[in-house]
Design goal:
The termini are far apart. 33% of the residues lie in helices and 23% in strands. The strands form three sheets. A six-stranded mixed sheet has the order 1-4-5-6-7-8, sandwiched between helices. A four-stranded parallel sheet has the order 10-11-9-12. The protein is elongated. The chain is α/β, with parallel strands linked by helices and 291 residues long.
């Protein structure tokens, strides 16, 4: 039975190889479910396509995936799973893809766009150095990027919220861009994909890892969005939160404002002019196409 063959190969050969290269159990996710399968409408009902499941995902940190590994049976060609590994890696924006039969290993490196056959898996340290060189980050920047997401936020069932794979991509991509010194970053996501959650994780990561804490403004165009963000999504900022109303306050670190609240003509001048030009380190503009 082919299934047993592949499972046996993983148990007897691939698992030990990963261990030998320094991939501890907490750095490996076996049978990682990328998606639950596309929903295909048919008539009044719908069916689901097969789930997308990667054999192994290797990660440098809880929320930073670095490689995808597809396993094949011991007597099959080692690179037979390469197309699948590449497809999964591209979907999750992961830089390294591997296919192995427990003997030889095929590697594709998206940084150099080179493919080669190797005898053993690179160590976590080797892949860290490669990605660090690619991003041109020092240790301090790398530490911020790899820092785990905040898990104090609960979902409706009361469990810590786990980022979906595309949310993780968005948070890591935006954080990388900020750390690389980019001044303007645009994140485009569909309705209902958790943009406020993404904004919170980025803000929290930068706030937590920088001293003194940076000052961030979250700008929205509707009162209910402001309240929801301030009370729910950003609740873990606690006392650092402040909603900008009629007068400028400067003692806080996480500010919330409506577009309308910043530029309405007041006797004392427009609200945004009451803050020094470089007062805010970061400004997050929600629904920016409206503003």
């Amino acid at each position: 039975d082919e299934k047993i063959l592949e499972a046996t190969t993983r148990l007897r050969h691939i698992d030990p190889q990963l261990k030998e290269s320094g991939w501890d159990p907490e750095k490996i996710i076996a049978e990682y479910q990328i998606t639950k399968g596309q929903i295909v409408p048919s008539g009044r009902s719908a069916t689901r396509n097969a789930k997308l499941i990667a054999d192994y995902i290797l990660r440098l940190a809880p929320n930073y995936k670095i490689a995808v590994v597809e396993a094949k049976a011991y007597d099959e060609p080692h690179d037979l799973g390469m197309q699948q590994a590449l497809r999964y890696a591209e979907r999750m924006e992961i830089k390294f893809a591997y296919s192995t039969n427990g003997q030889k290993i095929e590697e594709y490196d998206f940084i150099t766009n080179q493919q080669k056959t190797i005898d053993k898996f690179p160590t976590p340290q080797e892949l860290l150095q490669r990605i660090k060189g690619h991003l041109d980050f020092d240790d301090a920047k790398m530490e911020i990027l790899l820092d785990a997401f905040d898990r104090k936020t609960n979902d409706p069932a009361g469990k810590p919220m786990e980022a979906r794979y595309y949310q993780e991509i968005a948070i890591n991509a935006a954080t990388s861009a900020v750390l690389a010194g980019k001044k303007r970053i645009l994140l485009t996501l569909a309705t209902g994909t958790g943009k406020t959650t993404i904004a919170y994780q980025i803000a929290k990561k930068l706030w937590k890892n920088k001293s003194p804490h940076p000052k961030t403004m979250f700008l929205v165009d509707r009162k209910n969005l402001l309240n929801q963000a301030m009370v729910n999504n950003f609740s873990n900022f606690g006392e650092a939160r402040h909603r900008i109303r009629r007068k400028s306050e400067t003692a806080y670190e996480m500010y919330f404002a409506l577009y309308q609240g910043l530029d309405v003509d007041k006797e004392e001048g427009e609200m945004y002019k009451q803050y020094p030009k470089d007062f805010f380190d970061y400004v997050v503009i929600d629904e920016c196409h409206r503003g």
